[in-house]
Amino acid sequence: MKNTPKRKQRNKPGVVLFTAVAVMLMLSILLTATVSFVSVNRTKTNDNYKSKQAYLTASSTLESFINQIQTDTAPTNDPTAKAQQKKAIDNLKKLASANSGKGTTTNVSYNGSNGKSDNIGTTKITVAQESTSVANIVVTCETTYLGKTEQVAAHISIRSDPKPADYTNTIELVGNGGAGYDNLNVIGDMAGINNTTGKVYRFTNNTSIYGSYLMYGSLEVSTQPLIMLKPSLVCEKQGSTVTISENLDVSNEFRINSTMARADGYNYVNIGQKLSTSNHMDVGSSGFDVDLFCCEANIGGNDYTQYGNFYVYKGAGAYNGDATFGANGQTINGSLYVEGDLNVTKSLKVTGSVYVTGTITGKDKIVCTASNIHEGAVLSKAGRDAKPQIPVSADAYVYYPEDFFMSNDTNVTTISDQYQAFYDGSNTKTFNTFASDWTNVDYTLTELIDLTGTGAKTPVTSRYKLRITSSCTWASDLSFNDYGNGSRILVDVSDSSGDIVIRLQNGLNLGAEWSPVIVVRNRSTIIDTTTGDRKYNCYFVSDSGSAITLNGIDSVTGKSQHSGSSACNYSFKGLKVFDYDTYVRMFDSSVLNNTKGNPGLPQSGFVLNPTSVDVAGSYRPKNSSIIFLFGENTTLNATDQSFFQGSFYSPQAIVNIATSGLGGLVVTDSAGGKMTVQCCAVGVVIANSFGNANTAFYVYTKPSTTSVMQNAKGGKDDYAYGYELDRYDHY
Question: For the segment 518-568, what is each residue's pLDDT rounded down to a tens digit?
């Protein structure tokens, strides 16, 4: 019998995750391979029947293997199931790589309805490498029946994909120390993600966060800060929350308000241990409830006012769910739930009900309908009353800038060749190298740009003192007479340039007389079809040296280990870094036509939109392709109206942006509301330690999904282990 045509692309499901498949399931299929569904009529003996039966047996055996895995698996976030995924994939690879890639062959037996083996021919399954890579596997079933042999195969691509990093915080602290914030203003979310107990963070001098706040440790409030819960800039439907894993201590006015009506899943404050107040705390407002959860409460001093429910539930250790209310003026416009004992020493107004599991002392001081006060109550802790979970840990970083600098694994980095070229002598270019080429000096660029968002393009001309077109070192060798006084420098990323990596020479120190203006234009034409991000990016990297050693992934923490990273120190005054598409919209022609000088305030009418939705009359930047990668023990000090449009990934570095930034920037929210701010950065700032000064804002914009930052998060439990079924073949 002649072979039938190949059955390509049959039953292709895409990526199938080995979510619930244990190693024993894989072994039972591949090594025991007992299949009970094959039923045959053994009375026919013609050759055509023999071939068909051999084919059906082989095909059904193979497809049962594929179908059983598809049926028994589903995506999961459970760490145990993920561990089983990895074991299953590792086992499959082991079978395929045996015998120098020729694989493992196993004979199959078929059970009849009477439990005995049916003699319907012999079948063997072979799991082997399809090429030199164990990531490509072919599973072959070969059946011989009454002298006729048929063979079918499934071609599989093994998948071990790291979970893509998701950056949701405008400012994120990675270090295990506390921090103080003075006049810090954040549009977007903020977090301290290192789950080290005993850390204390302090808010002073009108610090404000317009988004969510997550921190591991305690928060002390002394000078009138504000947290304004707003819809998430990542997902407008998500809403916002405040999570503090330990204590909240309020010694001066503290307001936590919202711009949204409360709904399940957001508008809450969750305190892992104790809430203490001694002077004026406001939570929520009329029509905009914010619920509050803690494990112990001591409300004292002057004024506590809340719109929303107040919950005091038992916690770990000594936190018994007790509450004391003794402030001069205290009102809960909602209900009060106490799992321990309630002690009321001064008048407490509750507009809803009071539910106390233990005893109530000072019941006569509760201003509430008597029938709504319930002592010895049973708390449901369901629905709205369920205490939100404080995550055990945040999504940890696995790879560090050192991995991006030195790794040879293309699944980790795309810039190591450019970085190492600075140290092996193959790239000795500096900014001054480009200044020696007249084609890059006093550079004029005219481009058709849709400035209004209507699709109509108009020519826009911008001029630059210097253009950079490939990876190089920013050293201190430029002439001040030519390139001081706010020179505009264009970094031009294209398909021909690929990723442009700019090494900052260690010790680079530029005073206010330099005040360079860096504009990064990205016109690479290879676009990610899912995100719209361009393939290539611009990286500013620390001069961390080539003695870095990558010591593998720690088996306990799941994080990359490294050593030998050189310490670096940088100081800039008046440095401004813009994305080109923002720059040409932010400023008018009088600024764009200058090659030097402070750009000044954005032009009237420019509105920056950091939200996830389009807002009429505003400009919403794409994900930032400007990335700052600072290695371990690097310190950046930026002052005197410095401004950065780009993302900092510096989890073991110190970033001090003690600057009033760019003045007069109008920022909108998703509802079209506007405010004018002094802005220090538009992007995300991830650092071991972060310092700020002056009344300045930091505005959220996500980093490019094509940048190496996309590989930074993940780890041993954050890989998707599975396979892609490429095709079936019949030989």
Answer: 999 999 999 988 889 999 999 999 999 999 999 998 888 788 999 999 999
728: closest CA among 122, 55, 208, 30? 55
Asked if 188 and 211 touch (Cβ cutoff 8 Å), the reply is yes
Residue 23 DSSP SS3? helix
Q: Are 641 and 664 in contact (CB under 8 A)?
A: no
For residue 604, give the 3-state DSSP assignment: coil
Neighbouring-strand partners of residue 144: 122, 149
- What is the per-residue pLDDT for 481? 95
| pLDDT, mean of residues 658-668 | 92
| In contact, 241 and 264? CB cutoff 8 Å | no
Q: What mean pLDDT value characterizes the chain?
A: 85
Partners of 255 in the β-ladder: 226, 282
Q: Residues 570, 729: contact at Cβ < 8 Å?
A: no
Helix (H) and strand (E) counts in the chain: 9, 54
| Strand ranges inside 610-684, DSSP E | 626-629, 634-639, 643-645, 647-658, 662-668, 674-683
Residues in CB range of 155: below 8 A, 6 or more apart: 130, 136, 137, 138, 725, 726, 727, 728, 729
Q: Residue 325 and residue 69: Cα distance in Å, rounded?
A: 58
Listed residue (603, 609, 610, 612) closest to 584, CA to CA: 603
**Are the C-beta atoms of 318 and 343 separated by less than 8 Å?**
no
How many angstroms separate the CA atoms of 320 and 376, rounded?
A: 15
Least confident of 74-78, 278-282, 406-410, 477-481: 74-78
Q: Shortest CA distance to 225 belongs to which of 194, 246, 249?
A: 249
DSSP conformation letters of 243-276: EESS-EEESS-EEEEESS---TT-SEEEESSEEE
The distance from CA 725 to its chain's CA centroid, rounded to whole angstroms, is: 29
- Other Cβ atoms less than 10 A from the Cβ of 471: the count is 23
Outline where 565-610 has alpha helix (H): 580-586, 589-592
User: Which amino acid is located at 10 in the chain?
Assistant: R
Asked whether the beta carbons of 723 and 127 are under 8 A apart, the reply is no
Q: Are strands 662-668 and 643-645 parallel, antiparallel or unpaired?
A: unpaired
Q: Which long-range contacts (CB under 8 A, 24 or more apart) does 104-111 make?
A: 104/30, 104/128, 106/30, 106/31, 106/33, 107/33, 108/33, 108/34, 108/35, 108/61, 108/141, 109/33, 109/34, 110/34, 110/35, 110/36, 110/38, 110/57, 111/34, 111/35, 111/36
Whether 156 shows a pLDDT value over 50: the answer reads: yes
CA gap 520, 513 in Å, rounded: 22
Q: Which amino acid is at 686?
A: I
What letter represents residue 178's amino acid?
A: G
User: CA 17 to CA 25: how far, in whole Å?
Assistant: 14
pTM score of the predicted model: 0.77
Q: Among the listed ranges 35-49, 183-197, 485-499, 688-702, which one has the minimum average pLDDT value?
A: 35-49
Q: Of 449, 454, 437, 599, give the one whose Cα is nearest residue 519.
A: 599
CB atoms within 10 A of CB 166: 11
